[in-house]
Amino acid sequence: MADRRVSPWWTVSGLVILLWALFPLLWMVSLSFKDPDTFRSGTPTFFPENWVWDNYKTVFSDSLFTSALRNSVFIALIATFLAVIIAMFAAYAIARMDYPGKKFLLSMALAIAMFPQAALVGPLFNMWRNLGIYDTWIGLIIPYLTFALPLSIWTMSAFFRQIPWEMEQAAQVDGATAWQAFRKVIVPLAAPGVFTTAILTFFFCWNEFLLAISLTSTDKARTVPAALSFFTGASQFQSPITYIMAASVVVTIPVVILVLIFQRRIMAGLTAGAVKG
Amino acid sequence: MTLMQERAAPEKPEITDRASRERRLGLMLSAPAFVVMVFVTAYPLVYAVVLSLYNYRLTDPEGREFVGFGNYATVLTDPVWWSDFGTTLIITVASVAVELVLGFVFAFVMYRIIRGRSLVRTGILIPYGIITVVSAYIWRYAFQLDSGFVNQWFGLGAFDFFGERWSALFVITLSEIWKTTPFISLLLLAGLVQVPEEYQEAARVDGATAWQRLVRVTLPNMKAAIMVALLFRTLDAWRIFDNPFIMTVGANDTETLSFLAYRQNVTLVNLGAGSAISVLLFLTVVIIAVIFVKGFKTDLSQVRGDK
Predict the structure, then answer these.
(1) Do B137 and A245 touch (CB under 8 A)?
(2) Using one digit for the tens of pLDDT, what is the confidence trace for A226-261?
(3) Is A228's CB within 8 Å of B133's CB?
(4) Domains and CATH numbers, chain A
(5) Locate the ABC transmembrane type-1 domain: which residues (chain A) (predicted)?
(6) What are the tens digits of pLDDT across the range B103-129?
(7) A5 touches chain B (CB under 8 A)
(8) Model's pTM, two decimal places?
(9) B220 vs chain A: nearest CA distance in angstroms?
């Protein structure tokens, strides 16, 4: 620590990393502004010869995309909300209580985090059709919240462990029940951890693709990642590339905003569950 | 199971009132998570095991018949399974190896950098948060002949990256690496921060070079973090689906095991053989996890948080 010189070399390396992380985004934005009509003619270049908004106009007038965007937003938000609530109860119990089955629950969460989702698409496809929830929001929300639970439970129980115990005990000494102590004392202290977990869970649901294409068949419940893979462009004579990139830019914007605002929280959340301090 | 037993015998004499209340509340709070996880993973998995013992196509429901382990024999003697196994293995080993090195470099820079520290940490989270399908399209269009700049920039002429296996796997792996290196680098950074600075100091006093300090002091003290990062990334890479689906649709021997499971179950609705593939895929994941936990002694109690 003592002789750590402020070498410009580290800053240069940092810039290289930044370039590596952001360069593909630049390419995506550049493609999304290219003219779809002249796209196929001539040698491809990195930047557009003339910048046009056509792709964004097409994307927002295409019901395939707008309905997918609506599905994505609501499915991700509802699944995140439910996962965080369910995980919050479990994480609280894990961090604070001693009860049989605790180790089993943690092991089960770990197993599910490693679970290959592709191994479930067949049975879920069949089950969901029998239950009548194939190609519905709820049919995606249920598996999303399930696969988000392990991450949510670890992240939150890691945060919950850092909350001062004594405050809860003090509340109980003052006559509060365990439930009241949870609601009135722990919840306000736990809010930052819960919020961080919600961001990570939202990223997971927003990103998910395999279940989205396996458990949907129409634009009733198809999310953006699934819709992107079906996008064919305005007409069969145009390449869909520029449209897909415009749609990609649109769905990347929320991610960039969340990262910019909550950088510290996301970093803390990502490492909280996995490597204990 | 434990839930039932607890309800049946709520008050045992040796347990105090308070402890028993705590146990009951703990179980109640865990129950929703437990029920949902069983309903969506354990039950379908058992269902898959049952289905895998039948010859069952949704296109021919009448023809359903019990075939025992016949589907497993069919799958395991089919070259497609082994080709996809090989593809998955190549992508997993290549991406995890590169990510470990790259992730460590990133972690080290993020640890040491002072000017622009939060800028780099913010920037690196963007690939982490981006939709994998979007990442797949970005990289595909960068390499694709009619849209990409890569061939122009590197003077590759009309070389079609997606026209043959190895170059297609290269692009798939590149997208995977770009998207997931941030995750591994953040886990490694968390491990790096925990290496006591005094150890470095002591080694320096003893005349160790920077390389020796890295190999003898820093890395051994980060072993837990490295193993956990490796385990998670290996299992994650093993499940790879989005990138090959978007980039090649499995053409030119770039189909992975998850893709095969999807194709058999959802596209071909061949639920018997598809379920056998599902179960086998699950078993490969279990084997990888066991190798890490038993073979490499990865300490999962840290991950589970029950230590």
Answers:
(1) yes
(2) 999 888 665 666 678 999 999 999 999 999 999 999
(3) yes
(4) 63-232 (1.10.3720.10)
(5) 69-262
(6) 999 999 998 888 888 899 899 999 999
(7) no
(8) 0.89
(9) 15
